[in-house]
Write a structure and sequence with these properties.
The protein is of the alpha/beta class. The chain is built from 19 helices and 20 strands. The relative contact order is 0.11. Bound molecules: adenosine-5'-triphosphate.
Length: 528
Protein backbone atom coordinates (compact mmCIF):
# COMPACT_ATOMS: atom_id res chain seq x y z
CA UNK A 1 0.00 0.00 0.00
CA UNK A 2 1.42 3.40 -1.01
CA UNK A 3 2.02 6.26 1.36
CA UNK A 4 -0.47 8.54 -0.36
CA UNK A 5 -4.03 7.42 0.34
CA UNK A 6 -5.74 6.64 -2.92
CA UNK A 7 -9.41 7.49 -3.11
CA UNK A 8 -11.73 4.58 -2.40
CA UNK A 9 -12.97 2.74 -5.53
CA UNK A 10 -16.34 2.98 -3.88
CA UNK A 11 -17.53 4.79 -0.79
CA UNK A 12 -21.06 4.68 0.58
CA UNK A 13 -22.01 6.94 3.47
CA UNK A 14 -25.14 7.47 5.52
CA UNK A 15 -27.15 5.06 3.37
CA UNK A 16 -30.76 4.64 4.42
CA UNK A 17 -33.07 2.29 2.56
CA UNK A 18 -36.58 1.41 3.63
CA UNK A 19 -38.99 -1.15 2.20
CA UNK A 20 -42.36 -0.17 3.64
CA UNK A 21 -41.99 -0.55 7.39
CA UNK A 22 -38.68 -2.46 7.08
CA UNK A 23 -35.49 -0.47 7.45
CA UNK A 24 -33.04 -2.51 5.37
CA UNK A 25 -30.15 -0.03 5.76
CA UNK A 26 -29.87 2.44 8.59
CA UNK A 27 -27.12 5.02 7.92
CA UNK A 28 -24.88 2.24 6.66
CA UNK A 29 -21.40 2.87 5.30
CA UNK A 30 -18.64 1.06 3.44
CA UNK A 31 -15.42 2.02 1.64
CA UNK A 32 -13.36 -0.26 -0.60
CA UNK A 33 -9.79 0.62 -1.61
CA UNK A 34 -8.15 -0.16 -4.98
CA UNK A 35 -6.82 -3.72 -5.12
CA UNK A 36 -8.45 -4.62 -1.85
CA UNK A 37 -10.38 -7.81 -1.13
CA UNK A 38 -13.03 -6.58 1.23
CA UNK A 39 -15.53 -8.91 2.88
CA UNK A 40 -19.02 -7.81 3.80
CA UNK A 41 -20.55 -10.17 6.34
CA UNK A 42 -23.61 -10.24 8.55
CA UNK A 43 -26.47 -12.44 9.58
CA UNK A 44 -29.39 -13.14 7.27
CA UNK A 45 -31.34 -9.95 6.78
CA UNK A 46 -28.51 -7.68 7.94
CA UNK A 47 -28.76 -5.60 4.75
CA UNK A 48 -25.88 -6.91 2.62
CA UNK A 49 -27.85 -7.56 -0.57
CA UNK A 50 -29.62 -4.25 -0.23
CA UNK A 51 -26.28 -2.46 -0.03
CA UNK A 52 -25.13 -4.32 -3.15
CA UNK A 53 -28.25 -3.10 -4.96
CA UNK A 54 -27.44 0.44 -3.89
CA UNK A 55 -23.76 0.14 -4.91
CA UNK A 56 -24.66 -1.21 -8.36
CA UNK A 57 -27.32 1.39 -9.11
CA UNK A 58 -30.22 -1.07 -8.94
CA UNK A 59 -31.84 0.60 -5.94
CA UNK A 60 -31.86 4.29 -5.14
CA UNK A 61 -31.23 4.90 -1.45
CA UNK A 62 -33.68 7.05 0.52
CA UNK A 63 -30.75 8.92 2.03
CA UNK A 64 -26.98 8.91 1.76
CA UNK A 65 -24.33 9.16 -0.90
CA UNK A 66 -22.29 6.79 -3.09
CA UNK A 67 -19.04 7.90 -4.74
CA UNK A 68 -16.61 6.09 -7.03
CA UNK A 69 -13.01 7.29 -6.79
CA UNK A 70 -14.38 10.41 -5.09
CA UNK A 71 -16.66 11.15 -8.05
CA UNK A 72 -20.41 11.17 -7.52
CA UNK A 73 -22.27 8.05 -8.61
CA UNK A 74 -23.94 8.11 -12.05
CA UNK A 75 -27.59 8.96 -12.37
CA UNK A 76 -30.08 6.18 -11.65
CA UNK A 77 -31.04 4.54 -14.90
CA UNK A 78 -27.71 5.24 -16.62
CA UNK A 79 -26.88 1.54 -16.70
CA UNK A 80 -23.84 1.87 -18.95
CA UNK A 81 -22.20 4.37 -16.59
CA UNK A 82 -22.78 2.09 -13.60
CA UNK A 83 -21.34 -0.85 -15.55
CA UNK A 84 -18.13 1.08 -16.12
CA UNK A 85 -17.65 1.37 -12.37
CA UNK A 86 -18.91 -1.77 -10.71
CA UNK A 87 -20.32 -5.20 -11.45
CA UNK A 88 -21.82 -7.92 -9.32
CA UNK A 89 -21.44 -11.60 -10.08
CA UNK A 90 -24.57 -13.11 -8.58
CA UNK A 91 -25.27 -16.68 -7.56
CA UNK A 92 -28.01 -16.71 -10.15
CA UNK A 93 -26.63 -16.30 -13.62
CA UNK A 94 -27.11 -12.96 -15.31
CA UNK A 95 -25.96 -14.24 -18.69
CA UNK A 96 -28.47 -15.25 -21.37
CA UNK A 97 -28.39 -19.07 -21.46
CA UNK A 98 -29.08 -19.56 -25.16
CA UNK A 99 -26.54 -17.05 -26.40
CA UNK A 100 -22.91 -17.87 -26.92
CA UNK A 101 -20.19 -16.58 -24.64
CA UNK A 102 -19.16 -14.08 -27.33
CA UNK A 103 -22.70 -12.78 -27.66
CA UNK A 104 -23.08 -12.51 -23.91
CA UNK A 105 -19.81 -10.62 -23.62
CA UNK A 106 -20.96 -8.02 -26.11
CA UNK A 107 -24.60 -7.90 -25.15
CA UNK A 108 -26.00 -4.36 -25.24
CA UNK A 109 -22.72 -3.04 -26.47
CA UNK A 110 -23.58 -1.98 -29.97
CA UNK A 111 -25.17 1.39 -29.49
CA UNK A 112 -26.32 2.56 -32.87
CA UNK A 113 -24.68 -0.36 -34.70
CA UNK A 114 -26.88 -1.58 -37.54
CA UNK A 115 -24.88 -4.61 -38.50
CA UNK A 116 -23.09 -6.77 -36.03
CA UNK A 117 -19.94 -8.26 -37.50
CA UNK A 118 -20.08 -11.71 -35.99
CA UNK A 119 -16.62 -12.82 -36.99
CA UNK A 120 -15.01 -9.76 -35.56
CA UNK A 121 -17.11 -10.18 -32.45
CA UNK A 122 -15.87 -13.72 -31.93
CA UNK A 123 -12.30 -12.58 -32.39
CA UNK A 124 -12.79 -9.72 -29.93
CA UNK A 125 -14.32 -12.12 -27.43
CA UNK A 126 -11.42 -14.49 -27.81
CA UNK A 127 -8.95 -11.65 -27.26
CA UNK A 128 -10.87 -10.37 -24.27
CA UNK A 129 -11.01 -13.77 -22.57
CA UNK A 130 -7.33 -14.33 -23.29
CA UNK A 131 -6.48 -10.94 -21.78
CA UNK A 132 -7.98 -12.05 -18.48
CA UNK A 133 -6.64 -15.59 -18.79
CA UNK A 134 -10.07 -17.18 -19.10
CA UNK A 135 -9.90 -20.44 -21.00
CA UNK A 136 -13.35 -20.69 -22.54
CA UNK A 137 -14.32 -21.06 -26.19
CA UNK A 138 -16.34 -17.94 -27.08
CA UNK A 139 -18.65 -20.02 -29.24
CA UNK A 140 -19.87 -22.15 -26.32
CA UNK A 141 -23.46 -21.49 -25.37
CA UNK A 142 -23.69 -19.89 -21.96
CA UNK A 143 -25.95 -22.66 -20.68
CA UNK A 144 -23.22 -25.22 -21.37
CA UNK A 145 -20.68 -23.44 -19.15
CA UNK A 146 -19.83 -24.77 -15.71
CA UNK A 147 -20.54 -22.45 -12.79
CA UNK A 148 -16.82 -21.75 -12.58
CA UNK A 149 -16.51 -20.83 -16.26
CA UNK A 150 -19.62 -18.66 -16.08
CA UNK A 151 -18.23 -16.71 -13.15
CA UNK A 152 -14.96 -16.14 -15.01
CA UNK A 153 -16.86 -14.97 -18.09
CA UNK A 154 -18.92 -12.58 -15.97
CA UNK A 155 -15.80 -11.22 -14.29
CA UNK A 156 -14.10 -10.74 -17.69
CA UNK A 157 -17.21 -9.00 -18.98
CA UNK A 158 -17.26 -6.61 -16.03
CA UNK A 159 -13.58 -5.80 -16.41
CA UNK A 160 -13.99 -5.18 -20.12
CA UNK A 161 -16.53 -2.47 -19.35
CA UNK A 162 -13.83 -0.78 -17.31
CA UNK A 163 -15.09 -1.72 -13.86
CA UNK A 164 -12.38 -1.89 -11.24
CA UNK A 165 -14.69 -3.11 -8.51
CA UNK A 166 -16.32 -6.50 -8.64
CA UNK A 167 -18.84 -7.71 -6.12
CA UNK A 168 -18.99 -11.44 -5.59
CA UNK A 169 -22.13 -12.75 -3.92
CA UNK A 170 -21.37 -16.16 -2.37
CA UNK A 171 -19.15 -17.06 -5.34
CA UNK A 172 -17.98 -20.37 -3.94
CA UNK A 173 -21.44 -21.70 -3.15
CA UNK A 174 -21.57 -24.00 -6.16
CA UNK A 175 -17.88 -24.68 -6.72
CA UNK A 176 -15.92 -27.73 -5.71
CA UNK A 177 -12.53 -27.49 -3.99
CA UNK A 178 -10.57 -27.23 -7.26
CA UNK A 179 -12.90 -24.54 -8.57
CA UNK A 180 -12.53 -22.52 -5.38
CA UNK A 181 -8.73 -22.69 -5.63
CA UNK A 182 -8.79 -21.53 -9.25
CA UNK A 183 -11.20 -18.70 -8.44
CA UNK A 184 -9.04 -17.51 -5.55
CA UNK A 185 -5.92 -17.66 -7.74
CA UNK A 186 -7.66 -15.59 -10.43
CA UNK A 187 -8.82 -12.99 -7.92
CA UNK A 188 -5.32 -12.66 -6.52
CA UNK A 189 -3.93 -12.10 -10.00
CA UNK A 190 -6.55 -9.41 -10.73
CA UNK A 191 -5.95 -7.68 -7.43
CA UNK A 192 -2.31 -7.27 -8.38
CA UNK A 193 -3.62 -5.32 -11.36
CA UNK A 194 -5.57 -3.03 -9.05
CA UNK A 195 -9.01 -4.62 -9.26
CA UNK A 196 -10.90 -4.51 -5.97
CA UNK A 197 -13.35 -7.13 -4.74
CA UNK A 198 -16.25 -6.94 -2.38
CA UNK A 199 -16.85 -10.45 -1.20
CA UNK A 200 -20.16 -11.44 0.36
CA UNK A 201 -20.05 -14.76 2.08
CA UNK A 202 -21.32 -16.77 4.99
CA UNK A 203 -18.17 -18.88 4.83
CA UNK A 204 -16.04 -17.11 7.36
CA UNK A 205 -13.10 -19.39 6.66
CA UNK A 206 -13.01 -18.07 3.10
CA UNK A 207 -13.13 -14.53 4.38
CA UNK A 208 -9.95 -15.29 6.29
CA UNK A 209 -8.31 -16.96 3.31
CA UNK A 210 -9.16 -14.36 0.70
CA UNK A 211 -9.78 -10.96 2.23
CA UNK A 212 -7.67 -8.28 3.85
CA UNK A 213 -10.48 -6.18 5.29
CA UNK A 214 -13.85 -7.11 6.69
CA UNK A 215 -16.96 -5.02 7.33
CA UNK A 216 -19.75 -6.32 9.53
CA UNK A 217 -23.38 -5.24 9.22
CA UNK A 218 -25.89 -6.05 11.90
CA UNK A 219 -29.57 -5.14 11.87
CA UNK A 220 -29.17 -2.75 8.92
CA UNK A 221 -26.21 -0.93 10.50
CA UNK A 222 -22.46 -0.84 10.06
CA UNK A 223 -20.89 -2.25 13.22
CA UNK A 224 -17.24 -2.64 12.36
CA UNK A 225 -14.53 -2.49 9.70
CA UNK A 226 -11.17 -4.07 10.52
CA UNK A 227 -8.16 -5.74 8.95
CA UNK A 228 -8.95 -9.46 8.84
CA UNK A 229 -5.55 -10.36 10.26
CA UNK A 230 -6.27 -8.40 13.45
CA UNK A 231 -9.68 -9.85 14.08
CA UNK A 232 -10.00 -13.26 15.76
CA UNK A 233 -12.88 -15.32 14.42
CA UNK A 234 -14.65 -15.24 17.79
CA UNK A 235 -14.73 -11.44 17.68
CA UNK A 236 -15.98 -11.45 14.12
CA UNK A 237 -18.86 -13.76 15.00
CA UNK A 238 -19.59 -11.73 18.13
CA UNK A 239 -19.84 -8.58 15.99
CA UNK A 240 -22.24 -10.34 13.62
CA UNK A 241 -24.49 -11.71 16.32
CA UNK A 242 -24.25 -8.90 18.86
CA UNK A 243 -23.22 -11.36 21.55
CA UNK A 244 -20.28 -10.45 23.73
CA UNK A 245 -18.83 -13.93 23.32
CA UNK A 246 -19.90 -15.20 26.70
CA UNK A 247 -23.43 -16.08 25.71
CA UNK A 248 -24.04 -19.55 24.26
CA UNK A 249 -23.62 -19.45 20.51
CA UNK A 250 -21.61 -16.25 20.77
CA UNK A 251 -18.34 -17.84 19.81
CA UNK A 252 -17.53 -19.26 16.45
CA UNK A 253 -16.86 -22.74 17.74
CA UNK A 254 -20.28 -22.93 19.24
CA UNK A 255 -21.67 -21.71 15.97
CA UNK A 256 -20.33 -24.60 13.98
CA UNK A 257 -20.19 -27.47 16.42
CA UNK A 258 -22.74 -30.23 16.51
CA UNK A 259 -25.47 -29.68 19.08
CA UNK A 260 -24.61 -31.63 22.20
CA UNK A 261 -27.79 -33.50 22.98
CA UNK A 262 -27.36 -36.45 20.65
CA UNK A 263 -29.60 -39.38 21.12
CA UNK A 264 -27.92 -42.53 19.92
CA UNK A 265 -29.67 -44.16 17.02
CA UNK A 266 -31.67 -47.19 18.05
CA UNK A 267 -29.77 -50.05 16.42
CA UNK A 268 -32.60 -52.52 16.85
CA UNK A 269 -35.51 -50.32 15.77
CA UNK A 270 -37.24 -50.68 12.46
CA UNK A 271 -35.42 -48.50 9.97
CA UNK A 272 -37.14 -45.26 8.98
CA UNK A 273 -35.55 -45.64 5.55
CA UNK A 274 -34.34 -48.67 3.69
CA UNK A 275 -33.23 -48.78 0.09
CA UNK A 276 -32.26 -51.93 -1.76
CA UNK A 277 -30.35 -51.78 -4.98
CA UNK A 278 -31.57 -48.25 -5.63
CA UNK A 279 -29.85 -47.01 -8.75
CA UNK A 280 -29.98 -44.31 -11.38
CA UNK A 281 -27.98 -44.90 -14.49
CA UNK A 282 -25.17 -42.47 -15.09
CA UNK A 283 -25.71 -41.02 -11.60
CA UNK A 284 -25.18 -43.65 -8.93
CA UNK A 285 -24.58 -47.39 -8.66
CA UNK A 286 -26.97 -49.73 -6.82
CA UNK A 287 -27.16 -48.56 -3.26
CA UNK A 288 -28.42 -50.16 -0.06
CA UNK A 289 -29.09 -47.62 2.65
CA UNK A 290 -30.49 -47.99 6.14
CA UNK A 291 -31.40 -45.04 8.33
CA UNK A 292 -32.61 -45.88 11.81
CA UNK A 293 -34.84 -43.83 14.09
CA UNK A 294 -32.77 -41.16 15.77
CA UNK A 295 -30.05 -41.29 13.14
CA UNK A 296 -28.74 -38.53 10.92
CA UNK A 297 -26.98 -39.95 7.86
CA UNK A 298 -24.71 -37.75 5.78
CA UNK A 299 -24.24 -38.26 2.05
CA UNK A 300 -21.05 -36.39 1.34
CA UNK A 301 -19.70 -35.65 -2.10
CA UNK A 302 -18.55 -32.95 -4.47
CA UNK A 303 -20.58 -31.71 -7.43
CA UNK A 304 -21.73 -34.59 -9.67
CA UNK A 305 -20.50 -37.26 -7.25
CA UNK A 306 -23.99 -38.76 -7.16
CA UNK A 307 -24.93 -37.73 -3.61
CA UNK A 308 -27.43 -35.09 -4.77
CA UNK A 309 -28.99 -37.52 -7.24
CA UNK A 310 -29.50 -40.03 -4.40
CA UNK A 311 -31.19 -37.34 -2.29
CA UNK A 312 -33.43 -36.30 -5.19
CA UNK A 313 -34.35 -39.93 -5.83
CA UNK A 314 -35.31 -40.44 -2.17
CA UNK A 315 -37.75 -37.54 -2.34
CA UNK A 316 -39.29 -38.67 -5.63
CA UNK A 317 -37.86 -35.98 -7.88
CA UNK A 318 -35.95 -38.48 -9.95
CA UNK A 319 -37.11 -41.88 -11.04
CA UNK A 320 -34.62 -44.62 -10.24
CA UNK A 321 -33.70 -47.12 -12.93
CA UNK A 322 -34.02 -49.92 -10.40
CA UNK A 323 -34.30 -50.86 -6.76
CA UNK A 324 -36.71 -50.32 -3.90
CA UNK A 325 -37.27 -47.79 -1.22
CA UNK A 326 -39.36 -48.07 1.94
CA UNK A 327 -40.19 -45.81 4.87
CA UNK A 328 -40.88 -47.52 8.20
CA UNK A 329 -41.33 -50.78 6.34
CA UNK A 330 -43.84 -49.38 3.86
CA UNK A 331 -42.82 -49.40 0.20
CA UNK A 332 -42.76 -45.99 -1.43
CA UNK A 333 -43.59 -45.60 -5.10
CA UNK A 334 -40.37 -44.33 -6.63
CA UNK A 335 -40.24 -41.25 -8.81
CA UNK A 336 -43.29 -39.54 -7.29
CA UNK A 337 -43.06 -36.52 -5.01
CA UNK A 338 -46.65 -36.78 -3.69
CA UNK A 339 -46.09 -40.43 -2.75
CA UNK A 340 -42.85 -39.56 -1.03
CA UNK A 341 -44.57 -36.82 0.99
CA UNK A 342 -47.42 -39.16 1.88
CA UNK A 343 -44.98 -41.80 2.98
CA UNK A 344 -43.51 -39.29 5.43
CA UNK A 345 -40.49 -37.95 3.57
CA UNK A 346 -39.89 -34.24 4.13
CA UNK A 347 -37.67 -32.44 1.66
CA UNK A 348 -35.46 -29.39 1.96
CA UNK A 349 -34.23 -28.58 -1.58
CA UNK A 350 -30.99 -26.94 -2.44
CA UNK A 351 -32.47 -24.34 -4.74
CA UNK A 352 -35.20 -22.57 -2.88
CA UNK A 353 -36.13 -20.47 -5.90
CA UNK A 354 -36.68 -23.29 -8.35
CA UNK A 355 -38.11 -25.86 -5.99
CA UNK A 356 -38.81 -24.24 -2.70
CA UNK A 357 -41.08 -21.27 -2.46
CA UNK A 358 -44.02 -19.41 -3.93
CA UNK A 359 -42.44 -15.99 -3.73
CA UNK A 360 -45.57 -13.87 -3.99
CA UNK A 361 -47.27 -15.74 -1.12
CA UNK A 362 -46.87 -15.02 2.56
CA UNK A 363 -44.51 -16.68 5.00
CA UNK A 364 -47.54 -18.38 6.62
CA UNK A 365 -48.87 -19.78 3.35
CA UNK A 366 -45.48 -21.06 2.26
CA UNK A 367 -44.71 -22.64 5.61
CA UNK A 368 -48.01 -24.50 5.62
CA UNK A 369 -48.24 -25.58 1.97
CA UNK A 370 -47.76 -29.25 2.86
CA UNK A 371 -50.21 -29.28 5.77
CA UNK A 372 -53.28 -27.48 4.44
CA UNK A 373 -55.26 -30.59 5.38
CA UNK A 374 -54.50 -29.94 9.05
CA UNK A 375 -55.51 -26.31 9.17
CA UNK A 376 -59.27 -26.57 9.33
CA UNK A 377 -62.17 -29.01 9.17
CA UNK A 378 -63.43 -30.57 5.94
CA UNK A 379 -60.76 -29.26 3.62
CA UNK A 380 -61.04 -25.65 4.74
CA UNK A 381 -58.02 -23.63 5.76
CA UNK A 382 -58.53 -21.40 8.76
CA UNK A 383 -56.40 -18.27 8.49
CA UNK A 384 -56.09 -18.06 12.25
CA UNK A 385 -54.73 -21.60 12.45
CA UNK A 386 -52.38 -20.96 9.52
CA UNK A 387 -51.03 -17.86 11.24
CA UNK A 388 -50.63 -19.57 14.59
CA UNK A 389 -48.81 -22.46 12.98
CA UNK A 390 -46.54 -20.11 11.03
CA UNK A 391 -45.86 -18.02 14.13
CA UNK A 392 -44.58 -21.11 15.94
CA UNK A 393 -42.25 -21.82 13.02
CA UNK A 394 -41.07 -18.20 12.89
CA UNK A 395 -40.19 -18.34 16.56
CA UNK A 396 -38.55 -21.76 16.61
CA UNK A 397 -36.47 -21.15 13.49
CA UNK A 398 -35.77 -17.48 14.28
CA UNK A 399 -37.12 -16.26 10.91
CA UNK A 400 -36.55 -12.52 10.51
CA UNK A 401 -39.83 -11.24 9.13
CA UNK A 402 -42.35 -8.52 9.93
CA UNK A 403 -44.89 -11.33 10.52
CA UNK A 404 -46.62 -14.39 9.08
CA UNK A 405 -48.39 -12.34 6.42
CA UNK A 406 -45.24 -10.83 4.88
CA UNK A 407 -44.67 -12.07 1.29
CA UNK A 408 -41.68 -14.39 1.09
CA UNK A 409 -40.25 -12.25 -1.74
CA UNK A 410 -39.45 -9.55 0.84
CA UNK A 411 -37.32 -11.86 3.03
CA UNK A 412 -33.55 -12.07 2.77
CA UNK A 413 -32.14 -15.19 1.11
CA UNK A 414 -31.23 -16.95 4.33
CA UNK A 415 -34.61 -16.30 5.87
CA UNK A 416 -36.30 -17.70 2.77
CA UNK A 417 -34.32 -20.89 3.31
CA UNK A 418 -35.68 -21.11 6.84
CA UNK A 419 -39.23 -20.95 5.47
CA UNK A 420 -38.40 -23.89 3.18
CA UNK A 421 -37.22 -25.85 6.19
CA UNK A 422 -40.31 -24.87 8.18
CA UNK A 423 -42.44 -26.25 5.38
CA UNK A 424 -40.57 -29.56 5.30
CA UNK A 425 -40.98 -29.93 9.06
CA UNK A 426 -44.64 -28.99 9.08
CA UNK A 427 -45.79 -32.55 8.37
CA UNK A 428 -43.55 -34.00 11.06
CA UNK A 429 -41.85 -36.30 8.57
CA UNK A 430 -40.51 -39.77 9.40
CA UNK A 431 -37.50 -38.96 7.29
CA UNK A 432 -36.14 -35.52 6.53
CA UNK A 433 -33.99 -35.26 3.40
CA UNK A 434 -32.06 -32.01 3.23
CA UNK A 435 -29.83 -31.05 0.32
CA UNK A 436 -27.21 -28.47 1.28
CA UNK A 437 -29.65 -27.14 3.86
CA UNK A 438 -27.53 -24.27 5.09
CA UNK A 439 -26.58 -22.73 1.73
CA UNK A 440 -26.73 -18.97 2.19
CA UNK A 441 -27.56 -19.27 5.87
CA UNK A 442 -25.57 -17.23 8.39
CA UNK A 443 -23.26 -18.78 10.93
CA UNK A 444 -25.63 -18.62 13.88
CA UNK A 445 -28.75 -19.69 11.99
CA UNK A 446 -26.72 -22.58 10.59
CA UNK A 447 -26.28 -23.85 14.09
CA UNK A 448 -29.99 -23.46 14.80
CA UNK A 449 -31.05 -25.19 11.57
CA UNK A 450 -28.72 -28.13 12.03
CA UNK A 451 -29.94 -28.30 15.62
CA UNK A 452 -33.46 -28.61 14.24
CA UNK A 453 -32.36 -31.54 12.07
CA UNK A 454 -30.93 -33.23 15.16
CA UNK A 455 -34.15 -32.52 17.05
CA UNK A 456 -36.13 -34.21 14.30
CA UNK A 457 -33.94 -37.28 14.79
CA UNK A 458 -34.10 -37.07 18.57
CA UNK A 459 -37.88 -37.18 18.31
CA UNK A 460 -37.61 -40.61 16.66
CA UNK A 461 -37.43 -39.74 12.97
CA UNK A 462 -34.42 -40.05 10.73
CA UNK A 463 -32.61 -37.53 8.58
CA UNK A 464 -30.40 -37.57 5.52
CA UNK A 465 -28.16 -34.57 4.88
CA UNK A 466 -26.72 -34.32 1.37
CA UNK A 467 -23.85 -31.87 1.33
CA UNK A 468 -20.23 -31.09 0.68
CA UNK A 469 -20.16 -28.61 3.55
CA UNK A 470 -18.20 -29.94 6.49
CA UNK A 471 -20.33 -27.97 8.93
CA UNK A 472 -23.48 -29.68 7.64
CA UNK A 473 -21.83 -33.07 7.87
CA UNK A 474 -20.57 -32.53 11.40
CA UNK A 475 -24.04 -33.14 12.83
CA UNK A 476 -24.28 -36.56 11.19
CA UNK A 477 -23.92 -39.82 13.11
CA UNK A 478 -22.59 -41.57 10.04
CA UNK A 479 -21.37 -40.37 6.66
CA UNK A 480 -21.10 -42.07 3.30
CA UNK A 481 -18.68 -40.33 0.96
CA UNK A 482 -19.57 -40.47 -2.74
CA UNK A 483 -17.25 -40.23 -5.69
CA UNK A 484 -18.25 -40.91 -9.30
CA UNK A 485 -21.58 -42.41 -8.27
CA UNK A 486 -20.16 -44.84 -5.73
CA UNK A 487 -19.75 -44.88 -1.99
CA UNK A 488 -15.99 -44.77 -1.53
CA UNK A 489 -15.81 -44.42 2.23
CA UNK A 490 -17.89 -44.59 5.35
CA UNK A 491 -17.23 -42.62 8.51
CA UNK A 492 -18.64 -42.80 11.98
CA UNK A 493 -18.44 -39.62 14.04
CA UNK A 494 -14.84 -38.86 14.92
CA UNK A 495 -13.64 -38.24 11.36
CA UNK A 496 -11.33 -35.40 10.68
CA UNK A 497 -11.73 -32.78 7.96
CA UNK A 498 -8.76 -33.99 5.96
CA UNK A 499 -10.04 -37.58 5.76
CA UNK A 500 -13.48 -36.56 4.65
CA UNK A 501 -12.30 -34.01 2.10
CA UNK A 502 -9.87 -36.57 0.70
CA UNK A 503 -12.68 -39.11 0.34
CA UNK A 504 -14.89 -36.56 -1.44
CA UNK A 505 -12.03 -35.85 -3.81
CA UNK A 506 -11.74 -39.56 -4.55
CA UNK A 507 -8.58 -40.10 -2.51
CA UNK A 508 -9.36 -42.61 0.20
CA UNK A 509 -6.50 -43.43 2.48
CA UNK A 510 -6.00 -47.02 3.56
CA UNK A 511 -5.96 -47.41 7.30
CA UNK A 512 -8.47 -44.68 8.13
CA UNK A 513 -11.94 -45.51 9.35
CA UNK A 514 -13.11 -44.43 5.96
CA UNK A 515 -11.67 -46.87 3.50
CA UNK A 516 -13.50 -48.45 0.63
CA UNK A 517 -12.73 -51.81 2.23
CA UNK A 518 -14.61 -50.78 5.34
CA UNK A 519 -17.58 -49.87 3.28
CA UNK A 520 -17.81 -53.30 1.73
CA UNK A 521 -18.03 -54.81 5.20
CA UNK A 522 -20.90 -52.67 6.31
CA UNK A 523 -24.10 -53.73 4.72
CA UNK A 524 -25.60 -50.34 5.46
CA UNK A 525 -23.32 -48.69 2.98
CA UNK A 526 -23.07 -51.57 0.54
CA UNK A 527 -22.56 -50.96 -3.13
CA UNK A 528 -22.96 -53.79 -5.52
N1 LIG B 1 -37.78 -5.93 -1.89
C1 LIG B 1 -37.95 -5.98 -0.57
N2 LIG B 1 -39.16 -5.76 0.00
C2 LIG B 1 -39.33 -5.81 1.33
N3 LIG B 1 -38.33 -6.03 2.21
C3 LIG B 1 -37.11 -6.24 1.72
C4 LIG B 1 -36.84 -6.23 0.30
N4 LIG B 1 -35.52 -6.46 0.11
C5 LIG B 1 -34.99 -6.62 1.34
N5 LIG B 1 -35.93 -6.48 2.31
C6 LIG B 1 -35.72 -6.58 3.76
O1 LIG B 1 -34.56 -5.84 4.07
C7 LIG B 1 -33.80 -6.49 5.08
C8 LIG B 1 -32.39 -6.69 4.58
O2 LIG B 1 -32.39 -7.71 3.58
P1 LIG B 1 -31.09 -8.10 2.72
O3 LIG B 1 -31.59 -9.00 1.63
O4 LIG B 1 -30.36 -6.88 2.34
O5 LIG B 1 -30.27 -8.96 3.79
P2 LIG B 1 -28.92 -9.80 3.61
O6 LIG B 1 -27.97 -9.30 4.63
O7 LIG B 1 -28.49 -9.79 2.19
O8 LIG B 1 -29.40 -11.27 4.05
P3 LIG B 1 -28.99 -12.77 3.50
O9 LIG B 1 -27.67 -13.11 4.10
O10 LIG B 1 -30.06 -13.64 4.10
O11 LIG B 1 -29.02 -12.74 2.01
C9 LIG B 1 -34.53 -7.79 5.39
O12 LIG B 1 -35.29 -7.59 6.58
C10 LIG B 1 -35.42 -7.99 4.21
O13 LIG B 1 -36.60 -8.69 4.61
Amino acid sequence: MGTVEQPAVVRAQGIVKRFGPTVALDHARLAVRPGEAHALVGRNGAGKSTLVSVLTGMERPDEGEVTFGDEPAPGYGDTAAWQRRVACVYQKSMVVPDLTVAENLYLNRFPGARHIRWRALREDARALLAEYGVEVDPQTRAKDLSVEQRQFVEIARALSFGARLIILDEPTAQLDAGGIDRLFAKLLELRRQGVAFLFISHHLQEVYELCDTVTVFRDARHVLTAPVADLPKEELVAAMTGDDGTAPGGDSRAAVRAPVARKAADPGGEPVLRTEGLTLEGEFDPLDLVVRPGEVLGLAGATASGNTAVGETLVGLRKPAGGQLSVRGRPVRPGSVPHAIDAGIGYVPEDRHDQGLVLGRSVAENATLTVTDQLGPYGTVLPSRTRAFAQRMITSLDIKTSGPSQPVSGLSGGNQQKVVIARALAREPSLLVAIRPTAGVDVKSKDALLGVVRDVAAAGSGAVIVSDELDDLRVCDRILAFFHGRVVAEFDSGWNDRQLVAAMEGMTEPGTNGTAGDTEDRTEGRQS
